[in-house]
């Protein structure tokens, strides 16, 4: 019980930080995305060199957890919707411009795709994988599989062309077709495909981790 209370208090503090970061998404979201990219790229090299990855894993844990809070609210008891400031930032993205909300989501998904790479997976701890899955689930509840979608994305995934996609190939496809918010025609099926594969990897490669399995 004490552990649950501590985790809840931690998330409450991160929620406050997320509110601050959402105030200026055009500048803060790219910064968060860059942190994820840099930490993710550094981790395999750290492991290959024989260095202690503990500090880097901790930094990546905090960054991933914070991104989950920034991109989506808890939504407990309500239909999850994108935060107002992020929805406005996405809507104001000019044609052909980089959508800061989509780009941060891509960075988060790409981080999760480390679980699909046999070399990168060895660098992941169960604790980090758990918070990656938590952040992706929170994001998916809001942007991919909210209650008012009617299940269309679930059907669309079976019609997605190109077969099984892995690693960064999945995340890179999310940018095709412009800056939409992961609609069926703009990266939604590929994102759902990635989440299914990441979830399957988490179940199969960390079988004894009860909290991760949940």
Task: Explain how this protein is built.
With 214 residues, the protein is mainly alpha-helical. The protein has one domain. The protein is 67% helix and 0% strand. The chain is built from eleven helices and no strands. It has helices spanning 2-22, 25-48, 54-71, 84-91, 100-112, 118-121, 126-143, 152-159, 167-173, 188-205, 210-213. The protein is globular and about 45 Å long. The model is unreliable at 148-180 (pLDDT under 50). Keywords: Cytoplasm, Nucleus, Protein transport, Transport. InterPro entries: XPO4/7-like. It is found in: Cytoplasm; Nucleus.
Topology readout:
Layout: H1 2-22, H2 25-48, H3 54-71, H4 84-91, H5 100-112, H6 118-121, H7 126-143, H8 152-159, H9 167-173, H10 188-205, H11 210-213
Helix pairs in contact: 1-3, 2-3, 2-5, 3-5, 3-7, 5-7, 5-9, 7-10, 8-10, 9-10
